[in-house]
Amino acid sequence: MAYNIDLHCHSWFSGDGVSAPEALIESARKKGLHGFAMTDHNTCDACRYLLDKGLVREDGLPVDDFVIIPGVEVTTAEGHLLCLGVILPYLKGVPAAEVTKLVHDMGGLVIPPHPYDLFRAGIRESVLDTLELDALEVFNAATTLRRYNKKAFAYAQKRNLPMTAASDAHHESAIGTAYTILDAPEFSVKGLLDQIKRGTQLNQRYLSPAAAFKKTWSNWRRLGRPRKHAPEEPDSP
Fold it and tell me: What is the largest CA-CA distance in the chain?
């Protein structure tokens, strides 16, 4: 069965995200998504929060027919790197090659987002050439200039890399603007990640001007302090 999965999304646990994880889930369901990847900037607090709330299962199986892939968008020493299928410690500033090795050792995938976007910390081609990549984000709905997506597409073709599309949503209204279609035999985190490596289809649509403005406004908020998740204490006997 084909599943519609947005592989690049941010909640209010990112410094520049504005929506609760629950709001992202509700919006994604309404738009026909079967799941999304939770990829906040340099934190997996949203993933831990969702586990605590019972909205994500540790075994990666769906909750109420919806799958959330745990992940993070790490700001490596060379630029942003989506790390999927893992919950990582704080790795901001660590070289991309080291982050890639750690993620692979943990069984996850690494996918550089918006690699040619000069304004959004994309990892440059000279570094991409040295990395063991699992796929490349070739369509980012929030890209600064559309030609950056075209360059990413050409690079993925050159290296014969699987391709992904995503909204890069920082607000619930933007989730599912673009997404990746995965014809996976198993509807689970593992099944979806395995299918990325086998092949994908892309749903490509850009953010509306209003949604793009919301994202730009949110980016200015990045200097603010992001929310932190404190694990819930068990009830006293």
Answer: 60
Q: What is the sign, positive or negative, of the torsion defined by CA atoms of 82, 8, 159, 149? A: negative
Question: What is the distance of C-alpha 126 from the center of its chain?
Answer: 23
Summarised one tens digit per residue, pLDDT across range 214-232 is 555 555 555 455 567 666 5
Please report, for the chain, the start and end positions of each structural domain, with discontinuous segments joined by +: 2-223
* Closest to 168 in 3D by CA, of 11, 4, 55: 11
Q: Give the Cα separation of 21 and 62 in Å (integer).
A: 16
In angstroms, the CA 28 to CA 163 distance is 21
Task: Report CA 118 to chain centroid distance, whole Å.
Answer: 19
Q: How far is CA 235 from CA 52, 133, 232, in A?
A: 13, 44, 9
Bridge-based pairing state of the strands 67-76 and 35-38: parallel
Domain topology for 2-223: TIM Barrel (3.20.20)
**3-state percent breakdown (helix, strand, coil) of the chain, nearest 5:** 30, 20, 50
Triad 220, 223, 225: Cα angle to 5°:
125
Pairing of strands 179-183, 2-9: antiparallel
The structure's pTM equals: 0.90
